TrEMBL record:
Designated name of the protein: FAD/NAD(P)-binding domain-containing protein
Example of a GO cellular component annotation carried by this entry: cytosol
Gene3D superfamilies associated with the record: FAD/NAD(P)-binding domain (3.50.50.60)
Pfam short name (any one): Pyr_redox_2
Every FAD/NAD(P)-binding domain range: 5-168
A molecular-function term among this protein's GO annotations: flavin adenine dinucleotide binding
Organism: Ceratopteris richardii (Triangle waterfern)
Cofactor(s) in the UniProt record: FAD
Family: Belongs to the class-I pyridine nucleotide-disulfide oxidoreductase family.
SUPFAM superfamilies noted in UniProt: FAD/NAD(P)-binding domain
GO biological process: cell redox homeostasis; cellular response to oxidative stress; glutathione metabolic process
Keywords recorded for this protein, A-Z: Disulfide bond, FAD, Flavoprotein, Oxidoreductase, Redox-active center
């Protein structure tokens, strides 16, 4: 919005990856990349089996056995969030925002240092700095945490989980 009103705007964002880390992130935020959107894709994918079965009672015949391919569902989920990451990048570019891929560090009240993915380090000075760090999923510090995964990982599992336990917190 600021760029649309003539302000010079730059954003520092970590490179895209479905699973966030200290070095990976992406444009679109948690909801788009690691939350609402991938969750809805997986929920929609899970609902079709019953619909296929019920359709037989309404005159539909399907030749052959209906099968489910977990890997294809995960691949398509990842394709969609990758596409959306690109959409957000284009929205920023079209609004006149400069995007720097890398990690940012505030040096003083008016200086940001950006460690670009190319290895280059740039410093920028400005009158205003807006900090919007987002959040990351973390494991609870409890016995057995080495056996646990975060929600980021759960939405990108290579193999279909046959059983799971979910521990949640909203602090």
């Amino acid at each position: 919005m600021s760029a649309g009103h003539g302000a010079k705007v730059a954003i520092c964002e970590l490179p895209f990856h479905p699973i966030s880390s200290e070095k990976l992130g992406g444009c679109g935020g948690t909801c788009v990349i690691r939350g609402c959107v991938p969750k809805k894709i997986l929920v929609y994918g899970s609902s079709f089996h019953g619909e296929f079965e019920d359709s037989k009672n309404f005159g539909w015949d399907m030749p052959g056995e209906i099968t489910f391919d977990w890997k294809r569902l995960i691949e398509n989920k990842t394709k969609e969030i990758t596409r959306l990451n690109g959409v957000y990048k284009r929205i920023l570019a079209n609004a006149g925002v400069t995007l720097f891929e890398g990690a940012g560090k505030i040096i003083d009240p008016h200086t940001v240092e950006v460690h670009l993915t190319t290895g280059e380090i740039k410093r920028f000075t400005t009158k205003h700095i807006l900090i919007a760090t987002g959040s990351s999923a973390v494991l609870l510090d409890i016995p057995g945490k080495e056996l646990a995964i975060t929600s980021d990982h759960a939405l990108s599992l290579e193999d279909f989980p046959r059983r799971s336990v979910i521990e949640g917190n909203s602090t």
